[in-house]
Amino acid sequence: MRDIILEYVRERLGDENGVGALDETGFLKKGNKSVGAQRQYSGTAGRIENCQIGVFLSYTSIYGHTMLDRALYLPKSWIQDRERCREANIPEEVKLATKPELAIQLIERALNAKIPISWFVGDSVYGSSRKLRAFLEEQRKAHALAVTCKEQVVIEEKPQRVDEIAAALAQNDWQCLSAGAGSKGPRLYNWAVVPLKGAGIAGWGHYLVIRQNIETG
């Protein structure tokens, strides 16, 4: 079914490039028989609950939005219990994979299916994975991925935390722009762009984009 969906999307899109978005969601469960279910954080519930977690790759272009692919996250408690896996019909070849590693698998399948994705976006679950960022560079795919405040980036050969970089910016380094329309009008934030050490790829650059709440800083 996955291959049929990917082929259908590719045929409908032609050469029109779009954006691939990575994200995960939780499915609340009772009991311990659902594959991958355990007590873990669920963004759906906003707290730790007994749930399954799925990693998803969606696609947006001028034609609209669709779900491309998905993978079920299997926690260590499941993978290390091979008897439990056999009871749930989990193939022996399935190994432990982090959410970013599952995302790489989804991206590889989409690219192998010739889906015209020009760049990728994702939250800090994926942006904090250097393995995923390196993979996207190897594939020559641009990306805008969130990172946590403790992430370190390189400016002038010196690693620095991103929250420390933000705190050191001068007032005139910020520009006020809207992040889109909200229920009460434009959602205004201060924005700053900081060049980072280059990727070493012709025509490519690395940048830290910072968004600041106007009211709280």
Could you characterize the architecture of this molecule?
With 217 residues, this protein is an alpha+beta fold. It contains 7 helices and 11 strands. The chain has helices at 2-13, 76-79, 82-87, 99-112, 124-127, 130-138, 162-167; strands spanning 18-28, 38-42, 47-61, 64-73, 117-122, 142-145, 152-155, 158-161, 175-182, 185-195, 207-212. The longest helix has 14 residues, at 99-112.
What is this structure, in a nutshell?
This protein has 7 helices and 11 strands.
The average pLDDT value, as a whole number, equals 90
* SSE series: HEEEEHHHEHHEEEHEEE
Low-confidence stretches: none
Shape: globular
Global Rg: 20 Å
Distance between the termini: 47 Å
What structural class results from the helix and strand content?
A: alpha+beta
The number of distinct helices, counting runs of at least 4 residues, comes to 7
Q: What share of residues is helical?
A: 25-40%
Count all strands and give the number.
Answer: 11
Main sheet characteristics: 6 strands, mixed
What percent of residues are in strands? 35-45%
Task: Set down the secondary structure blueprint.
Layout: H1 2-13, E1 18-28, E2 38-42, E3 47-61, E4 64-73, H2 76-79, H3 82-87, H4 99-112, E5 117-122, H5 124-127, H6 130-138, E6 142-145, E7 152-155, E8 158-161, H7 162-167, E9 175-182, E10 185-195, E11 207-212
Parallel strand pairs: 1-5, 5-6
Antiparallel strand pairs: 1-3, 2-3, 3-4, 7-8, 9-10, 10-11
Highlighted features:
3-stranded antiparallel beta sheet; 6-stranded mixed beta sheet; 25% helix; 217 residues; 7 helices; alpha+beta
